[in-house]
Automatic annotation (TrEMBL):
The lineage of its organism: Bacteria, Pseudomonadati, Bacteroidota, Cytophagia, Cytophagales. Residues 31-101 form the HD domain. GO terms for biological process: defense response to virus. The keyword Cell membrane applies. Pfam families: HD, PycTM. This is Predicted metal-dependent phosphohydrolase, HD superfamily. Residues 224-390 form the Pycsar effector protein domain.
Length: 421
């Protein structure tokens, strides 16, 4: 009677512990699973005619074997041992029997081979679900639990294959468990095989539809790539034409300014040298044309993207072999192998073409960004130059000649008068 009382107390303790502290997200390893495991362990122990002490220790181990989930998910067996040791120790349970209980709990760790009959019974009881009609429903609960706590996600095809492999690789250790669950286990394996075939057919059908969808608009895909290439090349040509136009215009303006300033001996140059306030707008215009032409030249300057040779990059399709800046940096043999691989694999071909378009876009983005700076400098510089010229004209004063210069200008026509006389 006392032995039955401690098992009952253990079940009530585990019930309260799970109700108060176990996460509600544990939809598989909860009180229901623990109750079924303890029930199966007791039935198998009775079939083997275990002694009352062994049967009691087996039931206690079954009740405590998943209590560690309250603290942790992975490695919960050690926590379960702590819960069982603490609870049984408080009730002065014999030390040698506590050790037997904890050994049974440790035997439930996945991948360990049971060493004693008690170990085999509790492991079979813990895995009894595979030999029940409720296997598929509870397996889905385990799938959800793994997604939450272990971040393991499976497609329907992957899960069906995983379950099939698990059923085929798992067997019961005791003869009694094999007799009790073998029939339903065989039915579950057959049902899982049928489900796996359905998922395989479904996956093949989806792949077929995807291939058909990809093959039907083949001409459309090629047209898209052709138009995209043409558009990028046209935009590149437009950018180069705009850069050439800006270079030519600014070069002409710079040559005119430099020629104008160098005519020191001319009348215009001598007069201009006396009005140095005009040097500000002229110098501003010169700096504007210089800055604009520099950025225009940078925009039109050819740029070739390249990479450091690494065979792993070629195998991982991270290199665009269709661009000369890339394939000229690799040996001929690797280039030939890469091109043959591209021609065999449609996905690799499209990947290289997409990569090529991407880098064309990068070059275009750089061209237009620098060209925008060149035009902005030219526009702002012209505005400032016009403002500076306006200010210079507004504050322009006629130069005052000294008396000697005035006498020279008045006496110059005298010889003409004498000659006329």
């Amino acid at each position: 009677m006392e032995e039955q009382d401690i098992v009952k107390q253990a079940s009530e303790y585990v019930f309260r512990l799970f109700k108060e502290q176990l996460s509600k997200k544990l939809v598989y390893h909860n009180y229901k699973h623990t109750f079924e495991t303890a029930n199966e362990a007791r039935q198998l122990g009775e079939l083997y005619g275990l002694s009352p002490e062994e049967l009691q220790d087996l039931e206690l181990a079954a009740w405590f074997h998943d209590t560690g989930y309250v603290k942790t998910y992975d490695g919960h067996e050690e926590e379960s041992v702590h819960y069982a040791t603490s609870w049984l120790g408080e009730r002065n349970y014999p030390a040698e029997r506590i050790a037997r209980v904890t050994d049974c709990i440790k035997a439930t760790r996945h991948g360990l081979k049971p060493e004693t009959l008690l170990h085999e019974i509790i492991v079979d009881a813990d895995m009894a679900n595979i030999g029940k009609e409720t296997f598929f429903a509870t397996a889905e609960l385990l799938r959800v639990e793994w997604e939450i706590f272990k971040e393991q996600f499976f497609t329907d095809q992957e899960w069906a294959q995983f379950q099939m492999d698990f059923l085929l690789s798992t067997s019961f250790h005791t003869a009694r468990a094999q007799q009790k669950y073998a029939g339903q286990l065989g039915l579950n394996i057959q049902e899982q095989r049928n489900q796996l075939q359905k998922e395989s057919k479904k996956l093949k059908q989806e792949e077929k539809e995807q291939r058909e969808t990809l093959a039907q608009p083949k001409r459309g895909i090629e047209t898209m790539f052709r138009n995209t290439y043409r558009t990028h090349l046209n935009l590149s040509a437009i950018a180069d034409n705009k850069a050439n136009m800006m270079i030519s215009l600014n070069a002409i303006i710079m040559s005119v300014i430099i020629t104008y300033l160098s005519t020191k001996t001319s009348i215009t140059g001598a007069e201009f040298a006396q009005h140095r306030s005009l040097l500000v707008p002229v110098g501003l215009l010169l700096l504007t044309t210089l800055g604009s032409v520099i950025f225009a030249i940078i925009s039109a300057q050819p740029e070739v993207t390249s990479f450091n040779f690494n065979k792993k990059k070629i195998n991982s399709r991270k290199v665009n072999l269709l661009f000369f800046g890339n394939f000229t940096n690799i040996p001929l043999e690797d280039f030939q192998n890469g091109m043959h691989e591209i021609m065999r694999d449609k996905q690799s071909l499209y990947t290289n073409m997409i990569t090529d378009i991407y880098y064309l876009g990068e070059v275009l983005r750089r061209k237009y960004r620098i060209l925008h700076i060149s035009y902005s400098i030219f526009m702002v510089g012209l505005i400032l130059t016009v403002i500076a010229f306006g200010i210079s004209i507004a504050f322009y004063d006629e130069p005052v000649l000294d008396p000697t210069q005035q006498e020279q200008t008045t006496q110059e026509p005298a010889p003409q008068e004498q000659n006329s006389r």
